[in-house]
Write a structure and sequence with these properties.
With about 300 residues, this protein is mainly beta. About 5% of the residues lie in helices and about 45% in strands. The relative contact order is 0.17.
C-alpha cells in the first residue's frame, strides 16, 4: 500500500536554483559527447536523452539517523528532476537499459509498464484483472514479479515485452518486493514490521525477519529496494525511508524526504511518497510518489 526526525543533527544541502541538470550516468552517456548529440544507452543503442526539469529552488534538508557504523548524519542531494506520467505508483525499478519498470495500483486501474526515464507515456504496458490491486515489483533476470495487495497472486512477466508468464501465490498481503542477489531471495513486505525472504522459483518462505529500531517494531513497511545486501523501505503514509540490515532486522539509517513531497504539493492525502529505485549506474536513487508529476534523482551517500 503505499515524519520522523530524530537524533544526529541537521545538514543543509543543495540549493541549485533553476539549473538544468543532465546526468551522464542516467542515460549511460560517455565523456566528450557533443552538445545536441543523441546519447548512447546502456545496451549500446542510440536513445533520446531523458527530459529534465529545474532542480528545486529550496534548500532541501534531511535528517538521517544513526547511519551504519559512523554515528554521523548523512545528507540528501537532488541531482536531477524528471517529468512523469500519471499513475498510482506502487512499485518502481530501474531496468538494465535505464528505462523504468512501473507498477500501478487501484482496482480496475492496475497495470505494469515500461517507461523511458523523463517520458510521460509508457512504451509497453499490460493491465491486471480488475479485481487485482497492483503492488510492488522487482526483477530477476528477464522476469518481472508484480505483487497484488489482497489477492494472494503474484504476476510474472517476461522482459522487455511484458508478456504474461506464470502466476505464483503468497499467503497474506503483498506490499513491497525486492531482489536480494547476494542472498538469492526476494524480500516481501506486507504492511507490518515483518520482512519475509522468499525463494524466487516458487515464493516459498525461507526466513522471517522482524524489523526494529532501538527495540521498537518498525511498522507499515511498504515499497522495497534491495541495495548491496540492505533493504530500503518506504514507510507508508510517511515521508520517510529506512535502510534495514536484513541479517539482524535493525534499521541502520532513516532519511526524511518530506521536502521532496512538499515540492510536489499533493492535494490528496493518499498521494504519498511511494516509489524507490536504485540506479546501479551511478549509485543514486529515483524517488517518486502516488500520482506525483515528477521523479527526483537523489544521492543518499551524504558526505
Amino acid at each position: 500500500m503505499s515524519t520522523h526526525a530524530a537524533g544526529g543533527g541537521r545538514r543543509r544541502v543543495l540549493a541549485a536554483g533553476a539549473v538544468m541538470v543532465a546526468l551522464a550516468g542516467c542515460a549511460g552517456t560517455g565523456d566528450g559527447q557533443e552538445d545536441g548529440a543523441s546519447p548512447v544507452g546502456r545496451t549500446g543503442e542510440t536513445t533520446e536523452a531523458p527530459q529534465t526539469l529545474p532542480v528545486p529552488d529550496t534548500a532541501l534538508e534531511v535528517v538521517a539517523v544513526h547511519p551504519r557504523g559512523t554515528g554521523v548524519t548523512q545528507g540528501l542531494e537532488v541531482v536531477a528532476v524528471y517529468p512523469r506520467g500519471a499513475g498510482f505508483t506502487q512499485g518502481l525499478e530501474v531496468l538494465d537499459d535505464g528505462r523504468l519498470l512501473h507498477s500501478r495500483g487501484r482496482f480496475g486501474e492496475s497495470r505494469i509498464e515500461v517507461v523511458g526515464l523523463g517520458q510521460t507515456e509508457a512504451e509497453v504496458a499490460a493491465d491486471l484483472p480488475e479485481e487485482h490491486f497492483g503492488e510492488g515489483v522487482t526483477v530477476v533476470g528477464d522476469t518481472a514479479y508484480q505483487l497484488t495487495w489482497q489477492s494472494g497472486v503474484v504476476h510474472t512477466w517476461t522482459l522487455p515485452d511484458l508478456q504474461a508468464s506464470a502466476e505464483l501465490s503468497i499467503p497474506g498481503q503483498g506490499w513491497g518486493l525486492c531482489h536480494d542477489e547476494g542472498r538469492g531471495v526476494l524480500w516481501l513486505s506486507d504492511g507490518s514490521s515483518t520482512l519475509q525472504a522468499l525463494a524466487p522459483a516458487d515464493l516459498a518462505v525461507q526466513e522471517v525477519v522482524q524489523v526494529q529500531d532501538g527495540g521498537s517494531p518498525v511498522t507499515r513497511l511498504n515499497e522495497l529496494e534491495c541495495v548491496e545486501g540492505d533493504v530500503w523501505a518506504n514507510i507508508w503514509h510517511s515521508d520517510e525511508v529506512v535502510r534495514i540490515d536484513p541479517g539482524s532486522g535493525d534499521v541502520v539509517q532513516r532519511v526524511d524526504l518530506s521536502e521532496l513531497a512538499a515540492e510536489v504539493d499533493a492535494d490528496d492525502p493518499e498521494h504519498v511518497l511511494n516509489g524507490l529505485a536504485h540506479d546501479p549506474a551511478d549509485g543514486t536513487f529515483l524517488v517518486t510518489g502516488k500520482e506525483w508529476d515528477r521523479i527526483f534523482r537523489v544521492d543518499l551517500s551524504g558526505g
